[in-house]
Please model this.
Amino acid sequence: TGCERVRDQKVSMEQIRVSYQLVLTVTCLVCLWFSVGMSLESDLLIKTYVSSSLPSNDSLVSSVKFISDSEWDSLVIQSEVPVMVLFTAVWCGQCRLMLPIFDKLDLDYKDQFKFYRVDTDEDEGIAARYMVTVLPNTIVFKGGDQMTSYLGASPQKLKELVEQYK
Model:
């Protein structure tokens, strides 16, 4: 009858919806596993990412400020202390993993180093000036001069650079 056919179609649609959600969930988990697994420091990155996602009394908003081309000279070139700039983009997964690391460095080296972010999609001029074509890309400045740059997402390497140039 017509009622049984409608009921069967509703059951089939529900089964399709549940199957779709399961496939989507599994796909997301595989992508996350793959992207984190590609990092040499995956254990540290996972701990940093997970700990930054847990509720705490601290704000989950990054403490490291985005800067624009108009602020560049006053905040980076004319800075009295060394500056580390993370070039990032909204779509960059490895860049998002770097945010809690940058926040931690910003807290640990508060008066010895400054930390900023540049969105390469928003401020293409800065990225072009420093030939940033791969993300994440971190550049250290001291006395207004570019000292070094690092491509990748290694918390240990960033800490080493801070220690070297502080």
Observations:
- The helical segments are 2-37, 42-53, 69-77, 93-108, 124-129, 155-165.
- Confidence is low (pLDDT under 50) at residues 38-42, 46-60.
